[in-house]
Amino acid sequence: MAAPVPEVPPVDEVPPVDVPPVAVSVLGPVQATVAGQPAALGGPRQQSVLARLVLAGGHVVSTDRLLEDLWDGEPPPKALAALQVHVSRLRRALEPAGGRRSGATVVVSVAPGYRLQLPREAVDAWLFEDLVARAHASDDVATRRRLLEEALRCWSGPAYAGSADASWAAPEIARLEELRLVALELRADADLSLGRAPAVVPELERHLHDHPGREEAVRLLALALYRSGRQGDALAVLRRAREHLAEELGVDPGRGLRDLEAAVLGQAPALDLPAPPSVPLPAAPAPPPPPPAPARPAELRRLLELAGEGTHVVWVAGEAGAGKTTLVEAAAAQLRGTGWRVVEGRCPEVDGAPPAWPWTEITRALGGPPLREDTAFWLARAVADRLRDALREQPLLVVLDDVHRADELTLQLLRQVVDSLDDRPLLVLATYRDAEDGEALGATRAALASAGARHLQLRGLDAAGIAVLARQHGLEDAGDEELRLLRERTDGNPLFVRELTRLLVAEGRGAARTGVPTGVRDVLRRRVERLPGPAVTALRQAAVLGREADVDVLAAVAGRDVDELLDALETAVLAGLLDEPAPGRVRFTHALVRDVLYEDTPLLRRARVHAAALAALRDQDGVDAATLAHHAVAAAGPRTAADAVPYVVAAAREAGRLGAAAEEARQWASALRLLELAGRRGMVEELDVLLPAISAHARAGDVVAARAQQRDAVRTARRLGRRDLLVAALAAWDAPLVWTVRDDGAQDPELLDPLLELLETPAGDDLPGDVRCRLLVALVREVEGVDDERTDAASAEAVRLARAATGPDAARLLCAALNVRAYAALGPHLAAVREPLAEELRAVATAAGMTDHRAVAHWLLFLAASARTDLVAARRHVDTAVALADAGQLGHVLGALQVFSGALLVLAGRSDEGRARYEQVAAHLVETGAMNGGLMALVGRFVAGFARGDLTPVVPELEWLHAAMPGALTDAVVLGLLDAGRTDDARAAWAVRRPISRDYYWLASTTLRAHAAARLGDLATARRVRDELLPWAGRIAGLDSGTLVVGPVDDALAAVADALGDAGAAAAARRGAERVRAELAAQLAAVGV
C-alpha cells in the first residue's frame, strides 16, 4: 500500500511585485501600462511593432526586418514612413512626459532600426523566462516553487494574442507555450517534493487532459495519485497513456513511465520519497549580448600593455575611417573596468570652436568650477591641477580624439600638462589622421618624444578583422566571395567595410555583382541617396552646423517644425548616419559622413544655411565667438562682408586673450579678407585689423606674413599722414626674438628708415619712454647681425627704459627689452652678461606668467650652457624650452634642438649621422618657410666636412654662396678651396673678406679665420685673430651658436702658432685641445651621445 499522506503545508505566498514605470505585456493581449495606468497602443499593426520589438529581447530590429515582418514580405512604397508614424505614436503612448526633444528612452533608434529599452522585469515575457531560469538553477525546492508560481502569474492568455497568424510570431509563440507547460510541470514536481500530492492532482488532471501526449505530465499525475493513496487510479493513468501513445503515434511509453508502472505495481519504497525534478528545460533565454569582438585584437592588446608599462602618451595614427576612435574606446572600456578613470576631449572637425576646446570638455568631465584663466600659462597650470586632483584617487586615461584638427593651444597644453605630470599614472591616447599631420602636430609629437611617447600606426584590417565587422553589421554568414570583395574594395579600412556591408545588406547581396562603389565617399553618397528627400535636406543642413548639432537650433536654421524635423532625422539615425549622443542633439556617426554631405551641398545654398545659423545663434546666450565668426565668414558676400567683420574681430580677441596665437592670427587674416571683399582696404579701419594681426602672426611664428602686414601698415599710415599710426605699426610686433626675422638677413628700408627717423632725429623726441622702448626693440630686430654698434646701443637703452616703466604692460615690456639685450649678448663683447640677462628674463617672465618669454629665457640659457660645454645643463634647459614653447616658438626650438643634436653627433665622430640630421632639419625649415632655412643643410655639410678634414665635396655650394653673397662666409670658402687644392682661387676669395660680425657666430667665424690665415700664410691676420681668440681657449668654437660647430678653439691657436713658428705655443695649444676633447667626451657620454 502507499504511504500515509502527509499533512500539506500552506503554499508559499508570492510577494507583490513593484510596478515598473513602463510595463509591457505580450503573454496574453499586447498591452502596456505607464505609471500603472493603461497606455493607448493604437491599432493592430502599431501593437505588432511593439510586439516585434519585445520578441527581439532588447536587441535591435532593423527597419528592413520590421517592414518585411509587419507587411508579410510585401511592404508598400511608403511603408517606412508608416513605420515611423507607428513608432512616433508608440513613443507618445509610452513616454507621455518625455517629449520628442528630450530623446526617446523606451523605443529607441539604434542603427539600423529600433530596440525596446526596458528593464527585463518590465516586460512579462522577459520576466517569465528569467524567473523560470532562476527556478531551474535553484537548489532549494521552496524557492524554486515560489519562482515558478511568480513566473506563471505573468500569463493572462495566449502569447502574442492578435499576432498568432503572423509568420514572425508563430515560432516564438510555440516556444513560449512550451516553456509555460514546462514551468507548470516543474511547479507540480516541486509540490510533490514538498509533500503536496493531493493538492496538485486536479491541476495535473486538467493539464494531462489538454496535453495527453506529455509523458512528464503522466509521470507526475501517476506519482501524485499514488502518494495520495490512489494506487489504482495511478495505474489507470499509466494504462491510458500507453493506449494513447499506441493509437496516436504507434509507440510505447518511454522507459521512465514503464519503470514507474512497475514500481507502482510493486509498491516500491522509493516512490514515497520526493523525486528529483526530471523535466528537461528548454533553452534558457539568451544572456545579454557580449561586447562586440574587436576587429583589431593585437592593437588593443598593445594599448593595454602600454598602459601597464606607465607610458604617458600614445599617438594612434591612421587614415580616415581606420578605426582609431573605435580602438581607443575599446581600450578605454577595458581600462575603466580595471579601475581607471576615463575622460575624453574631441577636437572639432570643423571651424568654429573656441581654442583648447578638448581641454574644456575634459575639465568639465572631471567636475569642479569652469576654468576662468585668461592666459595659456595659467590655463595650463589650472588643467594640470585639475588632472592632478583626479590622479590622487585612481589612474587617469585622457582621450584626445582627432588631434589633426587640434588648435595650437590644445597642443601646447598637452605638452605642458604631460611635462608637469610626468610622475603620475596618466595616459593620454591621442588619435589623428596621418595624412593630415600638420606642422604644429608634428612639432608636438617631436617635443613629446623625450617624454617617452609611443606611436601606433593603424593599417587596413586583415581578413579576420573584416569578417568580424561584416558579421557585426548584417552579413552574419558572409561567404568567401563577399569577404574577398570587401577586402579588395576597402583595403581593410573599417569605415569603408562597415558602410559597404550596410549597403550590401540594404540593397541585397546581388549588389555585389552589379556594381559596388569604389571609394568610401561614394558608398556614403549612395547610402544617402536611399533616404527620403526631407531626410537628405535635414542632413545637409546639419552638416553646415558641424559634426554635432542641437535639434532646436537645427530646426530654427531649417525653418521647420521640430517634430517634422525629428521625423526626417529619425530616418538618418536608423540608417546609421546619425546617432543621438544626448537628448535634443544629433551627431554624425563619422566625420566623413558630415564631410561628404557638406562638400556635396552647393556653395550658394551652403552660404544661406550659414547665414541662417548665424541668425539663429547670435542672440543666444553662451555661444562662442569662434562659432559666430565661422558662420559669419562662411555666409559673407561682397554686400555682407563688412557686417561679418565684428564677429571675426571678437573671435580674434577671444583667442588672443587665451594665448592661442595661431587661431588669433587666422581670425585676423579672415577679417582682412572680409575688408578686401567689402572694398575697405587701405583705410583707417584696416589698420584696426592690421596692427593686432601683425602681433598675432609674429607670435604664431608666421614671420613672413607678419612682416608683409607690417609693411602694409607702415605704407597705409604714411599715406594717411598719421604719425601715431606709423608708431603703432612699427611697435606692433609683440613676439620674442629667437631667430632672425629678416629674409637672408637683409635690412628692409621700409621698416628701418622710419625707425631711425623716430629714434635718431628730433622727430621722435616727444615719444613717451615706453613707446620709445618698443621702437628700440623693433630696431634691434632690423639691425642685429648687421650693425653691431646699433644693436648694442638700442638694446641697452631699451633695458634702461623698460626698467623705469610702470603700468600693466611694464613686465612684458621688460621681458621684450631683456630678450633683445640677451640676444645681442650672444656676441663676444657682452659674453659676461649673457647668462645673467637670461636668468633675469626667466625670473621676470616666470613671475608674470609669460610662458613665451620664459621659453626664450631657457633657450638662451641653453646656449650659455653650451658655450661652456656643459651639455647636461644645456639639455635640461632646452627640454624645458620645448615644454614651455608656444606654437610660434616650438618649431624653432625643436629645430635648434635637432641641429644641436646633429652638431653633437659630428663632435662624437659620427659625421654622416650628424650631416643627415642637419639636412633633415633644413628640409623642414624650407617646408615651413623659415628664414634662411635652406642654408642649414650647407652648414651641416660644412661642419661634417670640417670635422673629417676635407671640405672638397661642399666647394661647389660654397662657391655659389660666395657669388651670391660675396664676403659673407669667406673663411669657409677659403678653407674649402684650399682642401680642393685651388690655392689661387682661395687667395682671390680671401682678398674680399669682410670684418666678422660680432654676433652669435663670431667665435666660430673667428676660429675659421684663424685656420684660413694660418694655411694661407697671412701672418698679420693670424696674429690679430690669435689675440682675439686667446680669451676663448678651452672652448668648442661655435657650440654656443648651436649650429656652426668647428672644434676646439685651441686647434686654431695651435695652427696659428705653427704658422708663426712658435713650437712651444703650438704644443701647449694642442695639449689644451686634448683636454677640451676629453671633457667633451665625458659630457657627450652624460647626455647619451
Automatic annotation (TrEMBL):
<dbReference type="Pfam" id="PF03704">
    <property type="entry name" value="BTAD"/>
</dbReference>
<dbReference type="InterPro" id="IPR041664">
    <property type="entry name" value="AAA_16"/>
</dbReference>
<dbReference type="InterPro" id="IPR001867">
    <property type="entry name" value="OmpR/PhoB-type_DNA-bd"/>
</dbReference>
<keyword id="KW-0238">DNA-binding</keyword>
<protein>
    <submittedName>
        <fullName>Transcriptional regulator</fullName>
    </submittedName>
</protein>
<dbReference type="GO" id="GO:0000160">
    <property type="term" value="P:phosphorelay signal transduction system"/>
</dbReference>
<dbReference type="InterPro" id="IPR003593">
    <property type="entry name" value="AAA+_ATPase"/>
</dbReference>
<comment type="similarity">
    <text>Belongs to the AfsR/DnrI/RedD regulatory family.</text>
</comment>
<dbReference type="GO" id="GO:0006355">
    <property type="term" value="P:regulation of DNA-templated transcription"/>
</dbReference>
<dbReference type="InterPro" id="IPR027417">
    <property type="entry name" value="P-loop_NTPase"/>
</dbReference>
<dbReference type="Pfam" id="PF13191">
    <property type="entry name" value="AAA_16"/>
</dbReference>
<keyword id="KW-0804">Transcription</keyword>
<feature type="DNA-binding region" description="OmpR/PhoB-type">
    <location>
        <begin position="14"/>
        <end position="118"/>
    </location>
</feature>
<keyword id="KW-0805">Transcription regulation</keyword>
<dbReference type="InterPro" id="IPR005158">
    <property type="entry name" value="BTAD"/>
</dbReference>
<dbReference type="InterPro" id="IPR036388">
    <property type="entry name" value="WH-like_DNA-bd_sf"/>
</dbReference>
<feature type="region of interest" description="Disordered">
    <location>
        <begin position="275"/>
        <end position="295"/>
    </location>
</feature>
<dbReference type="InterPro" id="IPR051677">
    <property type="entry name" value="AfsR-DnrI-RedD_regulator"/>
</dbReference>
<dbReference type="InterPro" id="IPR011990">
    <property type="entry name" value="TPR-like_helical_dom_sf"/>
</dbReference>
<dbReference type="Pfam" id="PF00486">
    <property type="entry name" value="Trans_reg_C"/>
</dbReference>
<dbReference type="InterPro" id="IPR016032">
    <property type="entry name" value="Sig_transdc_resp-reg_C-effctor"/>
</dbReference>
<dbReference type="GO" id="GO:0003677">
    <property type="term" value="F:DNA binding"/>
</dbReference>
<feature type="domain" description="OmpR/PhoB-type">
    <location>
        <begin position="14"/>
        <end position="118"/>
    </location>
</feature>
